[in-house]
Amino acid sequence: MAETTSGARTFLDSLLAGAEAGSDALKTLRARALERANALSVPTTRHEEWRFTDLTPLSRMAFRQATAGAALDASAIAHWTVPEAATRLVFVDGHFSVALSSIVSVDGVRVERLADAFATGNAVLASHLGQIAGFEHDPFVAANTARLADGVLVHATRNAFAAQPIHCLFVSTQADVVQQARVLVVAEDGASVTILEDHVATHDGAYCVNAVVEIDVGANARVRHVKLQRDGKKAFHLATTAARVARDGTYSNLAVTLGARLSRNNVHVLQGGTGTHFELDGLALIDGRQLADTRTFVDHAQPHGTSRQLHKCVVGGGAHAVFNGRILVREDAQKTDSTQESRNLLLSEKAHVDTKPQLEIFADDVKCAHGAAVGQLEAEEVFYLMSRGLSESVSRSLLTYGFAADIVGRIGIPSIVRQLDAAVVERTGGQEIA
Amino acid sequence: MSESTGKVLLDVRNLSATVAGVQILKGIDFTVRAGEVHAIMGPNGSGKSTFSKVLAGHPSYEVTGGEVEFDGQDLLALPAEVRARAGFFLSFQYPVEVPGVANSQFLRLAYNTVMGGRGREELDPLEFDDYVREKLQLLEMDPAFLERSVNTGFSGGEKKRNEILQMALLEPTLAFLDETDSGLDIDALRIVAHGVNSLRASGNAIVLVTHYQRLLNYIVPDFVHVMDGGRLVKTGGKELALELEARGYDWIGREAA
User: Fold this and answer.
1) How far apart are CA A159 and CA B147, in angstroms?
2) Of A96, A142, B94, B181, which residue is most buried, by most CB within 10 angstroms?
């Protein structure tokens, strides 16, 4: 990577400020990560993986570490609470809020703060933390790991089943700060859990989220991961999700991007055994000057894996969406069955999408299909609705709404579907149809 | 051929139209009276679907000549959605899928827009649900159809039934059914035909646009027209359809020439 510029270095340093105490193992992990974070630099657009996403605005910001103790009462987060999720862990500016959180125990599923897990020396930490999301080559994952002090641990033991989603709510209340978010999910063989990762803000100022989520899916286990990025309009959101999935396991990731001036969502899914199933659904609904960059990497490394991916972008104003979907089918991954679709709707002249499906297939007996489409609404679709009496503007709103609602409808958490549906109606000008 | 005395609903005079600069319709004269059923048959590419789409107001087609009066109005002067509100209906050969929009949401919106435009009372979701369920029975459709996204993942037969369901809801005075029978198995064809027949009334009319005579065993037309080369080249009674089935279309061209 290119030589660090001083501004970019300042940003990385702000991410690295103020490491905290912990066990020896944790200190070792942090030290290794710190070493990498110091060696790496903030990537520039000369770097292929960041060609469309210019991080220089980050370097111009003078971020500090968020201070703890910003008082929020329950009413301030009431409209983000999810009735379907009895267990909720709330982090305010990166700091755990005891008052706003509630943990309802379910047999076999342990949910706790990472800080508590560090203190009690939970054995799954040593075998998982920092080992799924690699930090060797990623300065943001390295900085997150170097600073690792708290977050969420979900540990589902063998065959445990949690019917309700576990809500991890990351709230920003301060401008000009960086906040880290960290989640580790370990689902042992046969276990089943749903995680709702949710990023929100109470203000309109600039701030930066640096999030890392690690997920280990055991044999025949299922993890469903819903990520809502509804950060403020001036926020920067940098995130990496890494999942490794053992034999016959299922991992599904549904990511909705509504907020942030600049966001980068990396999703890396590794097949660790035969017969795994991955589902990746994405929706970026952006306008104004927003940039939403999604980069997924599906690594079919074993036979009989299946993956289904549908990524949609609805881009208005002068916004810019980027999708880079890499699917690697390694030599041993025979009988892989993989589909990927990137569909993009441009709502204005200045809206812009860069989409790049990237299939690399080294096995010879596989089924892989991919497609990408960028454009405006089809005349035939608009005509169909108009032939049923709807005006052209209502027809266009309804089609745009449906394009986005298609992904929202898959979330499967009714209160979230309703909340996002309202957001989609608002963004697509569909008030008349709601 | 039966003699009709109903009022004229549609009067097409010397209609020509192009798509992407290519002349498809080359002077069509066509009159439909209330209470009638017409069938327009013809080989692929003869202009049947184009004729339907031009009348419905498809933006890709340009009318280059002629006049169309529909129920006393200049049809060609109306935008597509106004034609629908005025009582013109087109059942699509290829109904469009609208993922993310529940069929019930779409049907109610269409119903309220069209009926509201005709001065009828709009229905709230609960009232509409009761109303649409009656119509579903007519087409032997499961109520689960209402929850699914519009036409998304529907089989060919399900899409066509959904079209006729829309016809039942919107109560058109003139319905063009474009290849509604294509690709249907015999059970689905019977259901669709039964639905269409039950919507026939003395005040409305139906035009069946089809490639096959089979449909006409179930929905019996008063008139059969043959379209070829963008013109209606022959008109007869329902027996003409049987002759076309037996002899194909080639003899028509020779006879007209």
Assistant:
1) 33
2) A142
Q: Is residue A260 very low, low, confident or very high in pLDDT (cuts 50, 70, 90)?
A: very high
d(CA A237, CA A57): 12
What's the Rg (C-alpha) of chain A?
21
Query: Using CB atoms within 10 A of its CB, is residue A98 exposed (0-12), middle (13-18) or buried (19+)?
Result: exposed
Which one-letter DSSP state was computed for residue B120?
Answer: P
The shortest CB-CB distance from B113 to any of A389, A392, A409 is to A389
State the ipTM, two decimals. Answer: 0.95
Q: Give me the mean pLDDT over the A57-63 stretch.
A: 84
CA distance A410 to A339: 17
Amino acid at A97: S
Residue B133 neighbours by CB under 8 Å, 6+ apart? B143
Predicted pLDDT of residue A2: 42
Contact list, B100 vs chain A (CB under 8 Å) = 401-409
Q: Pairing relation of β-strands A64-65 and B231-236?
A: unpaired
Q: Is residue B2 part of a domain?
A: no
Inter-chain contacts counted by CB atoms under 8 A, chains A and B:
86
Where in the sequence is the domain holding B238, given as residue range(s)?
8-256
In a domain? residue B1: no
Q: Which amino acid is at A382?
A: V
Contact list, A427 vs chain B (CB under 8 Å): none
Give the span between the Cα atoms of B135 and A192, in whole angstroms. 42
pLDDT band at A69 (very low <50, low <70, confident <90, very high): low
Q: Which residues does chain B have with pLDDT short of 70?
A: 1-4, 253-257
d(Cα B101, Cα A154) in Å, to the nearest integer? 35
**B70 in any annotated domain:** yes
CATH number at residue B123: 3.40.50.300
Q: Is the pLDDT of residue A85 over 60?
A: yes
Q: What is the pLDDT of residue A1?
A: 41
Domain locations in chain A as residue ranges: 6-273, 378-434
Give chain A's mean pLDDT. Answer: 92
Question: What is the spatial distance between Cα A302 and Cα A315, in angstroms, rounded to a whole number?
Answer: 36
**Choosing among B19, B54, B111, B113, which should be mutated to test the A contact, i.e. which has the most A CBs within 10 A?**
B113
Residue environment code for A315-327, b if the CB has 16+ CB neighbours within 10 A, otherwise e: bbeebbbbbbbbb
Q: How confident is the model at residue A4 (pLDDT cuts 50, 70, 90)?
A: very low
pLDDT in tens, A167-190: 999 999 999 999 999 999 999 999
Structural domains in chain B (count): 1
Angle at A372 between CA A367 and CA A374, to 5 degrees: 170
Collapsing DSSP to helix, strand or coil, B223 comes out as: strand
The predicted-structure confidence for A344-373, as pLDDT tens digits, reads as follows: 999 999 999 999 999 999 999 999 999 999
CB contact under 8 A, B80 and A405: no
Q: Mean pLDDT over residues A248-256, rounded?
A: 98
Q: Percentages helix, strand, coil for chain B, rounded to the nearest 5?
A: 40, 30, 30
